[in-house]
Model the fold of this input.
Amino acid sequence: MKKRFLKYFIMCTAVIFFMSQAANASSYDVPVWSSQNNKINENALNTDSVNVNTVAMSGETLDSSEAVTNNPLNLTCGGAILIEQNTGRVLYDYNMHEKLRPASVTKVMTILLIMEALDSGRISLTDKVPCSENASNMGGSQIWLDTTEELTVDEMLKAICVVSANDCTVAMAEYLEGSEQAFVEKMNQRAKELGMNDTTFKNCHGIDEDGHLTSPYDIAIMSRELLKNHPQITNYTTIYMNSLRGGKSELVNTNKLVRNYEGCTGLKTGSTSVALFNLSASATRNGLSLIAVIMKGETSAIRFAEARQLLDYGFNNYQYKELGKANDVVGIANIGKGLKSSVEAVLSNDAGVAIKKSNDTNITQNVEIYNNISAPVTKGQKVGELTFNLDGNEIAKVDLIANEDVPKYSFFTMTKKVFENWFTLLRNY
Done:
């Protein structure tokens, strides 16, 4: 037994020595792995899909580099836009930066702030929301809230999304921020964060007020933020008929596309005698999600017809191509001075593009894994980039991240690891 113990002690000591020497001599010249010839065969692509992965998050802008701008659909409204929801690509632009009155489409921002409060845990769907005198006297679209009653956040959301209830909108604003004015300040702050540079909110409901303005472009930004990051809102925006107060208050959706347009997911109507007829319409078919915004349509029928035209244009001409899923393993990153010499490089998030239905072609991908990566490496740390190209043009880019921690090598940690292995071996004898 003593001989065997001495044998393993000498062996482990030698291992420690050689490992320390190897670590001191470790090279940091990690080669970049490029897979230019790794192609994804694709049916029905077109080369006009440059920069389609630009997003409208945290002050960034929608990508309008390839948008149709000469109004071939002959839209008659004051302004319009069509975007692909996942990538933020602008597919059609007609006066998209025209500053106009949004009417109740304003409530997209109100709903967004409500959903963010829900997700953060500030409020819950079962919270009881009181009605102030101010809220009960709003007028316009309403469910006739009374100051003696309370509705849950769930019921308030239903009334706001389905029948555009101004009284419920103000009640929720007061519940969240203490006053409508404070809530409107929050709306404008969030609009600035999202890069909505055409927008100034004066109220939370959209009743006409001087200076209360936005644009089709900005409505598309906040609509995308709501749908992309809070998809559960479609549980409300897709309701065609429902009721409140034990069936005593009937609700019928003001957005008629919910009933008669395939794949419709919402989103919000708005109209006043000054603003005329507005609509943010969303729909998804075969993985392609679109948002069409119509502002200042002359009639209600026109806003729905022109939103249909935009959505039809998108579905007839484009498709969404999934390029990869979050956590897909793309390559190996070599690590210097770590307890492990390498780590798997995985996609940080889903990757995809909106591309035209046209001639057959190929998408190529280029994997770049950084040189000179030294431990310690933390799980989720960026270690490279994956770029997708179509006919030499970049169409999407996604970060590559480490899928696990790699602690830094030290004599102490290496000795500890070797002795742990040593005692494990001894226990087997």
In short: The CA atoms of residues 321 and 353 lie 5 Å apart. Confidence is low (pLDDT under 50) at residues 20-58.
